[in-house]
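User: Can you fold this complex?
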Amino acid sequence: MPGKLKIAVLYEPSDNVTPPERERRRRREKGAPVGGRKRERRAKLDRDEVLEAVRASGHDAFFHELKDEKSLLELARIEADLVFNLTEAYAGDDSKEAHVAAFLDLLALPYTGAGPQALFLAQDKALAKKVFTFHGIRTPNFASSYRGKVDHVDDLQFPMIVKPGSEDGSVGIDAGSVVKTVKEMMERIAIVHEHFDSPALIEEFIEGREIYVGVLGSDKPEALPPVELDLSKLPKGMPRIAGKEVKWEKGTAAYDVTRSAVAHDLPEELVRRIQETALAAYTALGLRDYGRIDLRVTPKGEIYVIEANPNPWLAPEAELAIAAAAAGRNYARLVGEIADRALSRYA
Ligand SMILES: Nc1ncnc2c1ncn2[C@@H]1O[C@H](COP(=O)(O)OP(=O)(O)O)[C@@H](O)[C@H]1O
Ligand SMILES: [Mg+2]
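Assistant: Here's the predicted assembly.
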């Protein structure tokens, strides 16, 4: 980063709420939106880590907490060369994630990460899948419906997975999400509608390895080495998915036996295709600066995009940082590079 800059690390207080807590709250107050930043397995909040990394590179860094209308209006007056945008919600409502970026655009405040269009597209998983298909990117066949109103239906085969159409952090995804019969499927669709007031996304279940690809950049994005979440040691009978047990339930077998690490054993040609697919998905949705594409790779080497994550979890133990380290960037360099790439957009 050039010279000494003033950098505001912007976050939203429901970042403190873990997805399981969010889910419990939703059950209590159905329909009430409660947001929360993807905090998969995090020990320390990524905003603390990002602030420290920015300070370590010699810049002036400070927090701006976006907690209410007052702090929103104060944001219009902050003096900052760059906003490091870690928000994923506004006023606890994660459907307003894109609005925060749009507000920063209106203020002409330079900020890191995706713009409102990409945040909006990625949040609606069914819509994102339609865009992937248009671009020839393979994604599981699916149906999407909201309380009996069908949006889209492919010719589907069991087993399938039923999930909320616009959540993250595996909220609403657990061992019961993988269904083998019409009865199980209908029951899970009802659960999604009841607990999340969201369309249900019903996808063919893709048996295969769970691969995450970090991507950096904008015009000419670069795919980092693929990282695998090894699900092979999950207890017998549990579906091999990164459900909420795997991401959140510390102390359980599901949590303890699953780890993310660079997938060193993938053939070179497959790595190349995985990275090309990730770049295509990143570009198709218009992600910027940094992102993470979640994929499944079948034993035959078929690559399916499960979802695209703009502004993904950015702690040192996150998959993005693991991948960046394998590509020769330590954590401070990764954070610095994201800030640099954002700044160059406004130069
Ligand atoms: N079609 C699918 N086939 C196999 N596994 C899936 C499929 N969809 C989701 N999963 C599993 O569920 C996990 C969470 O799904 P995802 O759509 O990425 O939700 P989130 O946005 O909460 O991370 C994935 O990482 C994967 O393990
Ligand atoms: Mg995911």
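DSSP finds twelve helices and 14 strands in the chain. Residues 24-42 have pLDDT under 50 and may be disordered.
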